[in-house]
Design goal:
This protein has helices spanning 4-12, 16-26, 36-63, 84-90, 94-97, 112-125, 135-148, 151-160, 176-189, 206-210, 213-224, 237-246; strands at residues 101-105, 130-134, 163-169, 196-199, 227-231. With 247 residues, it is an alpha/beta fold. The protein folds into two domains: 4-60, no CATH class; 64-246, 3-Layer(aba) Sandwich (Rossmann fold). The chain has a five-stranded parallel sheet with strand order 2-3-4-1-5. Helix 2 (16-26) crosses helix 3 and helix 7 packs across helix 8 (151-160). The longest helix is centred in the first third of the chain and has 28 residues, at 36-63. The relative contact order is 0.14.
Length: 247
């Protein structure tokens, strides 16, 4: 049994996982048969797991996801046209590592935000940084940053994120500043980070929403050409749940 000064030293070094491991192993009679290297291996496993969990919690706080969603809880039974094999492939995060984008398109209430947040959660679990923004609030934050001198710093911060979730894109047309903001974001992230975008608007309407034809071409060329697409249809899941609750 380790003495208290050793535990204190481990605490000062930040080995909280190993401390928990020692306590668990001491309370497990079977651990008494383990040799020193086996004990050390188990303690290192405890420490690695603890640090991984802390990194995940840190990334999740930074991501500020709209919903507490997970890829394991995605409902494939709902009649909305979700391709199970495609979504499970996306859940491996290989598309993020390859710096590809994702477009999730469908009517309101069909679960677009949930799917995007579930992928954001999985990215955080796999040590990939993620940040969630609703499109209107992202543009509002950039406008505020432009006015108080933080604009360049905010764009630089956005560019470093591996997964930038832009939720609720459209239907309001972009103004000149918003067009330039979006072009800066996609230009900075082109071939360096991934952007999942959710929208009620069909893809063929995005050009008109951006407005300026030249800027729209530049933005969509960078977003769409290497993007996976999830196109959903059907009735709102909220409406379906309400009908089920009333049945």
């Amino acid at each position: 049994m380790l003495n208290h000064p050793t535990l204190d030293l481990m605490q000062s070094l930040g080995f909280e996982g190993m401390i928990k491991g020692i306590k668990d192993l001491q309370n497990n009679p079977e651990s008494q048969a383990l040799d020193h290297l086996e004990w050390l291996g188990l303690l290192l496993d405890y420490e690695a797991t603890s640090r991984q969990q802390k990194r995940f919690e840190r990334r999740l706080r930074t991501a500020k996801l709209r919903q507490a969603a997970s890829v394991e809880d995605v409902d494939y039974r709902a009649a909305r046209g979700l391709d199970r094999s495609l979504f499970q492939k996306l859940a491996t995060n290989d598309w993020i590592r390859k710096r590809r984008n994702l477009l999730i398109i469908g009517p309101t209430g069909i679960g677009k935000s949930y799917l995007a947040c579930a992928l954001g959660n999985k990215a955080c679990r796999d040590d990939l940084s993620a940040v969630y923004h609703r499109a209107p609030r992202l543009f509002a934050a950039l406008a505020l940053a432009r006015g108080d001198g933080r604009y360049a710093r905010m764009l630089k911060s956005i560019a470093k994120i591996r997964l930038l979730i832009i939720d609720d894109w459209g239907p309001e047309p972009l103004n000149a500043d918003q067009r330039r903001d979006l072009l800066e974001i996609v230009e900075d992230r082109y071939d360096s980070g991934s952007i999942p975008i959710t929208s009620q608007l069909p893809l063929e309407n995005w050009h008109d929403i951006i407005g300026d034809p030249t800027i729209a071409d530049a933005i969509l060329d960078r977003i769409v050409h290497n993007a996976h697409r999830i196109e959903l249809k059907g009735e709102s899941l909220r409406k379906t749940r309400d009908q089920t609750d009333q049945a």
